[in-house]
């Protein structure tokens, strides 16, 4: 259903993104990303690494590094996907927020809620927001 390809949106060192291999219907489960959770007080160690830009909030007292394709979704303030934290399964579950066409990059809002336009920790202009 999804693959990793070079993204024009990513300005990081690796320039990767998640793309649809086939059409994906709104509401369809795209990916279940397992997590490695750690207490927030340990985040000071993660901040010294490249992983700091890829950590997600995981409840009130923890942060998490996502495995699988989880940390490769790029950001948009007009996302076509969203995610829910599944604490029972220890996964982040990514769903299509809109219909997604084959070949389209799958984008999430890094703020969590699809309509949250709060500034992010990096100064990147999102091509979809122009």
From TrEMBL:
<feature type="domain" description="SET">
    <location>
        <begin position="1"/>
        <end position="111"/>
    </location>
</feature>
<dbReference type="InterPro" id="IPR046341">
    <property type="entry name" value="SET_dom_sf"/>
</dbReference>
<protein>
    <submittedName>
        <fullName>SET domain-containing protein</fullName>
    </submittedName>
</protein>
<dbReference type="InterPro" id="IPR009207">
    <property type="entry name" value="SET7_MeTrfase"/>
</dbReference>
<dbReference type="Pfam" id="PF00856">
    <property type="entry name" value="SET"/>
</dbReference>
<dbReference type="InterPro" id="IPR001214">
    <property type="entry name" value="SET_dom"/>
</dbReference>
């Amino acid at each position: 259903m999804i693959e990793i390809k070079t993204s024009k949106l990513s300005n990081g060192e690796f320039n990767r993104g998640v793309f649809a291999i086939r059409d994906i219907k709104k509401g369809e489960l795209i990916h279940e990303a397992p997590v490695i959770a750690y207490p927030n007080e340990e985040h000071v160690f993660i901040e010294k690494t490249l992983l700091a830009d890829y950590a997600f909030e995981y409840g009130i007292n923890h942060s998490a590094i996502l495995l699988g394709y989880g940390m490769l979704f790029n950001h948009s303030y007009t996302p076509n996907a969203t995610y829910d934290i599944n604490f029972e399964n220890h996964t982040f579950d990514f769903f299509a927020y809109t219909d997604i066409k084959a070949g389209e990059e799958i984008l999430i809002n890094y703020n969590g809620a699809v309509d949250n336009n709060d500034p992010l920790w990096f100064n990147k202009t999102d091509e979809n927001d122009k």
